[in-house]
Structures are given as structure tokens and as C-alpha cells.
Fold this sequence. Notes:
Residues 450-639 form the Alpha-L-arabinofuranosidase C-terminal domain. The two termini are 52 Å apart. This protein folds into 3 domains: 1-43 and 419-437 and 452-498 and 513-648, Sandwich (Immunoglobulin-like); 72-217, Sandwich (Jelly Rolls), CATH 2.60.120.260; 242-416, Glycosidases (TIM Barrel, Alpha-Beta Barrel). Helix 5 crosses helix 6 (347-354) and helix 9 (476-491) packs parallel to helix 10 (529-539). 18% of the residues lie in helices and 29% in strands. By secondary structure, the protein is of the alpha/beta class. It is globular, with a radius of gyration of 27 Å.
Amino acid sequence: MLKLQALVALGVTLFSTISTSSGATTIVVNGTASHSIPPLLYGLMFESGDGGLYGELLQNRAFQQVTAGTAAALNAWHAVGSTTLNVVRDSTPVSASLPNSLQVTFPSGSGVGFSNEGFWGIKIDSSWTYTASLYYRFPTASADFSSQLTLGLKNAAGDVVASSSVPVQGSQTDWTQVKVTFTPSSSQGAAGNQFFVTLDNTSGSNQTINFAMLSLFPPTYKNRPNGMRIDVAESLVELGPSFFRFPGGNNLVKGQTAATRWQWNTTVGSLLDRPGRQGDWGYVNTDGFGILEYLEFFEDTNMEPIMAVWDGYALGGTAVPQAGLDPYIQQAKDQINFVIGDPATSAPAALRASLGHPEPFKLQYVEIGNEDNVGSAPSTVQYRWQTFVNSLSVEFPQLRFIATSATFNPRLTPNPTDYDVHVYQTPTWFAQNSFFYDGFARNGTQYFEGEYAATSTNPNAIFGSPAQGRLLWPTMQGAAGEAAFMTGFERNADIVFAASYAPLLQHVNSTQWTPNLISFDSGTVYRSTSYYVQKLFSLNRGDEYLPSTLPTPTGTIFWSVTRSISSGEIIFKVSNTVAAASDLTFQLPFDNVASSGSLEQITGALSDSNTPDQPTTVAPVTSTISTGQTFNFTAPGFSVSVIRVKAS
Length: 648
Ligand SMILES: *[C@@H]1O[C@H](CO)[C@@H](O)[C@H](O)[C@H]1NC(C)=O
Ligand SMILES: *[C@@H]1O[C@H](CO)[C@@H](O)[C@H](O)[C@H]1NC(C)=O
Ligand SMILES: *[C@@H]1O[C@H](CO)[C@@H](O)[C@H](O)[C@H]1NC(C)=O
Ligand SMILES: *[C@@H]1O[C@H](CO)[C@@H](O)[C@H](O)[C@H]1NC(C)=O
Ligand SMILES: *[C@@H]1O[C@H](CO)[C@@H](O)[C@H](O)[C@H]1NC(C)=O
Ligand SMILES: *[C@@H]1O[C@H](CO)[C@@H](O)[C@H](O)[C@H]1NC(C)=O
Ligand SMILES: *[C@@H]1O[C@H](CO)[C@@H](O)[C@H](O)[C@H]1NC(C)=O
């Protein structure tokens, strides 16, 4: 058995060596499209926004979901001077959803107070106006006391570079919000910078003040209040994505327990009414980036949501019994109605209208749970799917519901029209599975590749540790493997309607999973090799697929040919998944083919990555190449190329 495998492997190697050394591979293109490229083919998948896409600059801004009195409750907060800080469970909280406050006792002296380190730094940009706000009250009236609170930013050296003051009165025992704006005197990068609040009036010794819901916002993407961090949002928009899978995978749509699941109705309205939740990846989710913020962001960026609902199964392993599903189905209906319902007949839709969006949002696909087969008994998968889909499809016949268990295993009733398929694998697996979908029945069932990424070169460390070979950053080899797999999406786009790399975003100072498509720190965004592959494919997807000579499924070079009807261009995508260059000859069946075309390409060595230290090791290069009815193209080792040629 072992010997036979070795011989087969040797045979493959010999064959591919002979074929490349004996000359170019000829690719004959058929001018008759076999299928159109579906409008949602390339998009994004997302898990959580705090400290990343969500613009808020303060970490632990409202002491949500922490235990009062513990050191952990003070995460990211620090005393300035000999101030005493404590998170307390307030006898008169700022809101029912935010029971905790920061209680600060100010000693005598000036400039005493507290600071917040942000999400491992705070970007200070002198071209920005920041908005800072907080709620305060004196737990015990200090009737004669009056002073000023100064809110501002200081750099890593401790120099104040922005500040603004507001009066405070010791008689104020009810919660009062103060809000200031300031513009820094100079730009300061991000690392080590802090937001601070100090109390003036040196005779104000030993005043105790409670604070709640402190916030610091820079300008946001499209100036949305409570909006998105501009550079992160722009890095997403640059990919030209068509959809956004939200509110996420295991973090949002599972929760560790039913009680800690994401619930749409605790993420809407005033920030004071959002309790936040313990997320699955080790930190609290503020839910400041709530369902309406998501939906408005999608509208701002021409993305369509693919929205998931919680379906009775938590990551911790517990499934709700069939008889107990009704409240969760009702909540899923409410969530869907918040997005598309009629304010005249639906309370969640009326809530949406009251929040400023009477028109329904666009929605065609709803996912039932996430990775429903993982760790869950097949029997619960069946009844949960059936109970949810039967009920939801009566109320929303216009929607398509996506199953998230393994394809056809178990066989579900009713038969799913759509499946979400996830795969984390090696670069080589992706290259060797470019034909993954070619054998699937063409019988109406459609597929969403909702998560995929090359995570390790070691098959035993796909979900393992960096020590075992888990990749820290996407590599050129991984990106080329993913691109090979993606040529298979295009060839099979009659049944693959959408695909998204995962995970999308990573703060380099607090990372639960590697690699990620986009990395960032508090100041800068870093685009990976895989990012550029997503961008090349998304921006060059074309309108229809043109059949051509098939790549060798077990080979090393893969391609896909599409046509853009609007621009009259033929678009060739080529991925070379190994170090040796590969010579290709394209033959086009058109009378008029331009004598030159554009080439956009990324290439590098096997393990080349873009990192915070070396962010542009691999970056796309655009050039002009000679084309014609027949033209040659050499794909460099480990490269992904897109050629566009006008032809008719
Ligand atoms: C091109 O594709 C069409 C439609 O599938 C087919 O009928 C035709 O035979 C193909 N032409 C060539 C040259 O393969
Ligand atoms: C400082 O606070 C004291 C009471 O503690 C008050 O008498 C005094 O007027 C305040 N000074 C200023 C400048 O507000
Ligand atoms: C400060 O207040 C605490 C309790 O509120 C009290 O025990 C302490 O004596 C006070 N210190 C001064 C210097 O007034
Ligand atoms: C959210 O909705 C669920 C039921 O769907 C309900 O139990 C819960 O009280 C609601 N929470 C809030 C804050 O409205
Ligand atoms: C499509 O074919 C698969 C098997 O390849 C089968 O399991 C599935 O039920 C079929 N879908 C429909 C809608 O018939
Ligand atoms: C954040 O990560 C960068 C890169 O690894 C490192 O240089 C920096 O010291 C980290 N900052 C903090 C605050 O941990
Ligand atoms: C393509 O390359 C081959 C050699 O591999 C050469 O014979 C042929 O002339 C080239 N064709 C064009 C159009 O340059």
C-alpha cells in the first residue's frame, strides 16, 4: 500500500516535470459562455468589530460584563497621579444595561485623574477632530465643590497634545453627560498614546466621582455617528466585496451558551441600552457595532448582507430541545423583520423606522446557525434545521435559507437549497482541490464557501499552534493555493454563488487566530498576500465564464477565463502554486483581439508574507503585455496573475 502510493506520487511528479520541460501548456478558450458569474460571488465574512472596524478608541469604555471590584474590571484603565480607581456596581447605574461605573477618588493636587490606553495605543492625527464624552455623577453631594474636568490625549512621552475642559459641579448627584471635541496640536503615531481625564482645582482634595460610558471617537467612515474606523473600512471597500456574512460565525451565531448568544435586540438604540456580551474569543463584545450599524455600513458600501440567525446550538456543546425552540425562532423572525419587515405590521420593523430607516434593507439569504455539524449530535441538527426552516420559510417565502451542517451529512429534511461550506487546509490541499466542486450534481442545490484559508503547511497543524507550523500570516504559497481553489469557484459558479476568506481582521496585539486577511494595529492597516488575491479576483470577476482547456486537477498551474460584457474584455486568472515558472499559450476564438493587454500580478517566494515589519514584501504590480489571438504568458513561480484583453 505504501509502495503503491509512493509510485503514484512519483508518476505524478515525473508527468508534470515532463510536461513543463517539454514546452508550453496550450489553453484553448471557447467564446460561448457556459454560465454567468453570480452577483454575490466575492464578499466578506466577519466576527467582531471592537478595537478594529468599529471606530471607538477606548477599550473597556463602559465596564460591560466585568466583575466589579476586580483588577480585571479595570482593564485598559490607569490612575494618573495617586488617584484611586475602582469599578463598582453602582447603586444608581447610568442605565439598567450598564450596571458598573468607574469610581474615582481624586487626591489633592492638580492633574490627577485616570487614563485609557486604547486598543494597544491610540492614533493621534492632527488633521482629525476627536469627540470625547462621558457620564459623571457625585455619589455623595459635595455642594460647594466646583471644578473642571479636562479630557484629552497625551503621547507616549506623556506630553498633552490635545485637551478640552468642561465644568463639573459637586452638587451633581444625577448622571450628566459631558461631551467635548479637540484637535491635536501634532500627529503622534499610535503606540503608547493615552486618553486622559483629569480634575482641576487643587482644593478639590478627596472628591469621589463616578464615571460611566466614556467614549472617544475619531472621524468615521462616511462620517457616520458611532461609525467605522476609516482606514479599516477602506481596506474592506478596496476589495470590491458584494456581500458581508454577518453577524459572524462561532462568536456571534453560537455563543458559549444560549444565554451568551448574540441577540439583535440588545444591539440597537442608545449605547446605554446595550449590555454587551462575553464573546467567544476571550474578550467582551461591546455591541456598540450593532445590527443597524452593520446594515448602514453595508448600504454605504454596496454590500448585501448574508445574515445568520442563532438556531439553538451553543459552542459550549448544548443544544436546545425541540420543544424549547419557539422563543429562539421568534427572535430569529424578529431579527429578520428588523432588516426587511414592514413598519406598519411588524414591531421590530417599526423600531428600525424609529431609528431612522423605514425602508427595508436588502436581504436574500439567511443562514441557520454556523457549522451546525461541529460537535453537535446529528439528531439535533435535523430537528433544529427542520423546525427553524419550516417556520421561517412560511413567514419569509422570498428568502433562501442556508444550511450549515456538512453537505448531505446528515441528509436534512427539508432538503437544503443552499449550503455553507467551510475549509481550513494547507496551501497544497487548496491547489489539489481546485476541482472540489466539479463533481457536484447540478440539481439546484447551491453552495456558499463561507470560510476558507490556508492556515498551515503541516496537515496536522491546520488548527494547531505556530510551533507546529500554523502560519502567522498568509504566505505567497497559501495565497497561490487559495487562488487555484478560487479558479474552481468561477468554473463552478453555476452552483457556487458566494465565497469569503476567513477570518477577515486581526489586531496584531490581541490575536486569537492566525492567519487573517487583514492585520492592523492602533495606527496602521496591513494587507496580506491573500488580501491581494481576494482583491484581484473580486475586481476582475467578469460577468460570464468562458470554458477553456481544463487545468490538470493534480497539476500545479490553474486558470479561469471570464468575460466582462460591459468592457468587452476577456479576463484570464492564472495561479502558479509551485516555485518553477510555467509557460502558457492562450488561444482565443475571436477575430478582433487587442495587441496588448494589462497584467496585474503578485509573486514571491514560498513563505513570503506581508507583516507589520515588512508590509509590502508582496504587492501587486501592473504592466502591459503583448496579446493577440494566440499569445504566450509565463507565470512566475508562486504567482497569481490577472490578464485583461479587449476581444470581440
Ligand atoms: C464551445 O462551447 C459550446 C457550448 O458549450 C459547444 O457547443 C461548442 O462545441 C464548443 N466549441 C468548441 C470549439 O469546443
Ligand atoms: C475648588 O473647590 C472648592 C471646594 O472644594 C471651592 O470652594 C472652590 O471655589 C473651587 N475653586 C474653583 C476655582 O472652582
Ligand atoms: C477621603 O475620603 C475617605 C472616604 O471617603 C476618608 O476615609 C478619608 O479620611 C478622606 N481623606 C481626606 C484627606 O479627607
Ligand atoms: C430581546 O428579545 C428577547 C426575546 O426575543 C427577550 O427575551 C429579551 O428580553 C429582549 N431583550 C431586550 C433588551 O429587549
Ligand atoms: C443534489 O444532489 C445531491 C447529491 O449530489 C443530493 O444530496 C441533493 O439532495 C440534491 N439536491 C436536490 C435539490 O435534489
Ligand atoms: C503590539 O505589537 C507590536 C508588533 O508585534 C509590538 O511591537 C508592540 O510592542 C505591541 N504593543 C503593545 C502595546 O503590546
Ligand atoms: C510562443 O512561444 C513559442 C515558444 O514556446 C514560440 O514558438 C511562439 O512563436 C510564441 N508565440 C508568440 C505569439 O509569441
